[in-house]
Amino acid sequence: MGILSASQTFVGLCLLLRPRLSLAEDFLVGYGNRPYVPICGNSCLQAFKPYLLNCSDLEAAKKPFDPLSPATAPSCYAKDTPFLTSVAWCVNTKCAADDAGISELEEWWEKTVTGSRLPPPKWTYSVALDNVDPRPPAYQLSIKDSNLSRTSVVVETTYQSHWNGMTALYDEYSAESKYGIILFVIAVGLPIVLSFLRFSPFIETIFDRLKIYLARPLLPHPIPFLGTPPLLLPTLYLLLFTALNILLTALSIQPRQPNAFFPTLYKEVINSILVRTGAFSFVLLPILTLFSARNNPLLWASNWSHTTFMVLHRWVGRLFMVHVVVHSILALRIYSFFENTDWWYWGVVGTVLTVAMVLGGGVYVRESAYQVFLATHVVLAVLVIVGGWYHLLGWYAYLGRRIERGNTLGYEIWLYFAVGVWVFDRAVRVGRMLVVGGRRAKVTELEGSEYLRVDVPGVRWGAEPGRHVFVHFPTVRWWLPWENHPFSVVPTCVLRGRSESGSPGDEEKNGATAVTRAVLPRDSGAGVTLFIRKAKGMTAHLKAQDGLLTFLDGPYKSCGSTRDILRCDRVLLIAGGIGITGVLPWAHSGHWNVKLAWSVREGASTLVDAVDLSGVLIKEIKVGSRFNIAELLAEEESAGWCRVGVVVCGPRGLCDDARSAVAVAGKRRKTLFELQTDVFSW
């Protein structure tokens, strides 16, 4: 019941994104859109359409069938008496059992019987039926007939094959709509449900025991070309979602033979899988745009982090690619005779670009040329949506359907929704930057070091921990106007000091630097101060200057809910290098019992000297070596704390070590550990 009501709500939401809302056909099939109803009437119509009429174009009839230039034009159908009376008699006899009302039949007749709304038929359905003489018609058509020159009775086997074909197609399209909505509702609803379940005392107790397993990846090492595997909870989510995709692709396929559209059972089943994988490809598009959005409503409705949703975005994108590729392979199998049509070309374009977009978004590409990846990824995504749009337009045209007429099968709704999510996210980003306004930052080179200090004055965002901001320097590399970088948000009252860049890899092991974090100096008033170590990319172009144009997009949550950490008896902060800026707001969050463990690489004493830690009572700093995280956790256990919150910010190696150590310590069940990590990665 919940899924059904949610699906109705979803359909209404999608329609809000559409330019036209006047017709029932704007809905998905089965949700207001009934493309083949009355099936009895459409079966009669299709059974008579192959016959040549007195006004048909005989020369066109000798050529291969072209739906855009048929041998019999709508104007011919509209005025041909034998055609109108034969169809009317068939409808009268076949639709009696379907309990179709006369008003429904009249409306269908006016819109459908000629194959076009203009010109209208010369007679209404009732008038055409009155002109049937004799009743029943004297002539019985046979499969050998090719012309329709008098009122005739339909060939029963021909009618039945069309009825079977349309019933099967209607059932298939309805199933696609229902299952597509189920996929969407589960994809976006499961994070919310799981987040709210945690507030139940019974569920919370169970979840506390499961955290030691959910806080670490399913596989301990990175996967080649795919990067670090997701944590166990997102992995279970992805396994469930993938299994659901496979199940719903095969569920409720109900072939009907004999079938006017598919002469064999094999082709009919292949077609069902083909159209369902194509439909699910469209369903996944708004999910992909939603998961990748900085302003994803699920970030507010659940306690899942943006990092988690980006991991889901990548893996759901791979599932999207599988749907597209399977759809294309099956189309080659049974529809290769359409290979010269425009909509086939657009399908090929969409498939090739989808594969390029997904494979071109691998971890190696992101790490080696992130800005190039980002630009090409967005361009390819736009082209995939455009390709899908024109693929639909051409296919609809082949079926005699037009979006402007509102008589489609509803697949374009998913495209509207995907574009709507993307536009919403970009609009909110721009809105956030406009609220803060353009700022003039001061860039200072720290003498004797490779660090830069960037002061952005006049920003007051408070001291809430676990937040970051995206910073734009549009004049630094003007040829990359989209370039922006994330920085941790630390209030002015917390730090006076300076910071360096973070690393997408393991900073303490190899010194690679690309991602920076922000600090707010104690002595600079309201504002954000960034300390950046010069490296390749944008940071190499930053020089000492006053008045550097700066835009701030944020702040955003870096992690899930802070509630679980702040309710602990003890908060242990573990930072690696520049990760200090990600954990310091926790030290000033008002919690009474905080310990800081900060390790930096050799030669980073400038960073240590720059950061004021006088407000942190319990702290330990190591230069040139790392902490043994297992020993840190053992100390907390021996102190007798019941619940310890562990916040880790630093390179991936540090965060992976922390997850493993927390998982091992949690199995001893002496102390319950709450873990949050903020890892430097692309």
Automatic annotation (TrEMBL):
Keywords on record? Glycoprotein, Ion transport, Membrane, Signal, Transmembrane, Transmembrane helix, Transport
Gene Ontology molecular function: any one: ferric-chelate reductase activity
Q: Key word Signal present in the record?
A: yes
Q: Please list every transmembrane segment annotated in the UniProt record, as residue ranges.
A: 179-199, 231-253, 273-294, 315-338, 344-365, 372-393, 413-431
* Pfam families, per the entry: FAD_binding_8, Ferric_reduct
List each copy of the FAD-binding FR-type domain by range: 420-562
As given in the record, the signal peptide range reads: 1-24
Q: Can you name this protein?
A: Ferric reductase-like transmembrane component
**Organism of origin:** Schizothecium vesticola
